[in-house]
Design a protein that fits this description.
The protein is α/β, with parallel strands linked by helices and 357 residues long. The chain contains eleven helices and twelve strands. It folds into three domains: 143 residues, Aspartate/ornithine carbamoyltransferase (Rossmann fold, 3-Layer(aba) Sandwich); 152 residues, Rossmann fold; 45 residues, SH3 type barrels (Roll), CATH 2.30.30. The chain is globular, with a radius of gyration of 20 Å. The relative contact order is 0.16. Bound molecules: N-carbamoyl-L-aspartate.
Length: 357
């Protein structure tokens, strides 16, 4: 496997295998402590990160490998105007695998298209975050024992919350999953995520009320309102306190509901909830390291065959106007679009998935 850009680059069967390996790593960590000896992971983080970057680094070290790190655009030639493609090509001379986080949507795809070593998307702007979904899935498997017939509430910033977009894509492949989308109207899911649920006939409802949704949920996935993604600071100020999960609200939930959160939290989960056994978010970040270990192992040991998931026809006659798309800034990158199957005349940018004009 040469790239993990979108969670759908992994089949359900591959996800199961990754989770099996992660569970085996948890049971017998020593068995894996030399598995990546002599290999190097480059962690290229052009956006702040604590858990994702350190868990990638710690995962590689626990596999006996080594780590090269860039943290913040100021720490690399990106600040001199170097393109993503040139940066990735450079790094591919020094490392065996790249994990990249970047504020622009589609950046990891551009990197993957530029090099022959494996590339992992560690978050591209407000678009997607497949390795957080790996952490989320292992947490659900270990705590709920299943993925089917779950009612999953997603609460907070559904517009910019890249972890939410990837989690919906992953869970939509299991039977009987329903979503309750809890957000202020300004932070509703992007159209392409809503369309993907509709096309897969996934039942969902939208609400602004966390209290109203709580009693029916098997999982509550809380998210942070993401200040850094807002163009209008006044709108952020108006929305930042929209949801706070506290012990009173937890009393409305099922006794076996689980609370997940990709973290960091700001104020959306009261610290009093931390001691509730249903609070799974600290276990979730441990699971993230285990899944990243399993993923690095898989990507460094697979034969290099690419899973043919995204080999759809590409159209060039349109324009992407999303200012956060990598196609706006990457030198000489040609914009490219795919047609949404079953929907007349809807084309989306291959980098950011926003609708083309
Ligand atoms: C998330 C992210 O970066 O998208 N955090 C993470 O990776 N654990 C969520 C967030 O920043 O709010």
């Amino acid at each position: 496997m040469k790239r993990l850009i979108d969670i759908l680059d992994l089949s359900v069967q591959e996800l199961d295998q990754l989770m099996d390996v992660a569970c085996d790593i948890i049971a017998q960590p020593r068995k894996y402590s030399h598995a990546c000896e002599g290999k190097q992971l480059a962690a290229l983080f052009f956006e702040p990160s604590t858990r994702t970057r350190l868990s990638f680094e710690s995962a590689m070290l626990a596999l006996g490998g080594q780590v090269l790190s860039v943290s913040g655009a100021g720490g690399s030639s990106v600040s001199k105007g170097e393109s993503i493609a040139d940066t990735a090509r450079t790094v591919s001379c020094y490392a065996d695998i790249i994990a990249m986080r970047h504020p622009q949507e589609g950046a990891a795809l551009v990197a993957a298209d530029s090099v022959s070593i494996p590339v992992i998307n560690a978050g591209d702007g407000g678009h997607c975050h497949p390795t957080q979904t790996l952490a989320d899935l292992l947490t659900i498997r270990r705590e709920m024992g299943r993925f089917d017939h779950l009612t999953v509430g997603l609460c907070g910033d559904l517009k910019y919350g890249r972890t939410v977009h990837s989690l919906i894509a992953a869970l939509s492949r299991y039977e009987g999953v329903r979503f309750v989308l809890i957000s202020p109207p300004e932070l509703r899911l992007p159209d392409y995520v809503v369309e993907s649920m509709q096309d897969a006939h996934i039942p969902y409802e939208e609400t602004v009320s966390l209290e109203g949704a709580l009693p029916k949920l098997d999982i509550l996935y809380m998210t942070r309102i993401q200040r850094e993604r807002f163009d209008d600071p006044a709108l952020y100020e108006a929305l930042k306190g929209s949801y706070v999960l506290d012990t009173e609200k937890m009393a409305l939930a099922k006794p076996d509901m689980r609370v997940l959160h990709p973290l960091p939290r700001v104020n959306e989960i009261s610290v009093q909830v931390d001691s509730d056994p249903r609070a799974s978010y600290f276990r979730q970040m441990f699971n993230g390291k285990m899944m990243r270990m399993a993923l690095i192992l898989k990507m460094l040991s697979d034969s290099g065959e690419e899973t043919p998931v995204n080999n759809r026809p590409v159209y060039r006659h349109l324009t992407c106007r999303n200012p956060k798309c990598i196609s706006q800034t990457e030198q000489e990158l040609q914009q490219a679009f795919y047609k949404v199957p079953g929907r007349r005349e809807i084309y989306r940018c291959v980098y950011c998935e926003q609708q083309a004009e």
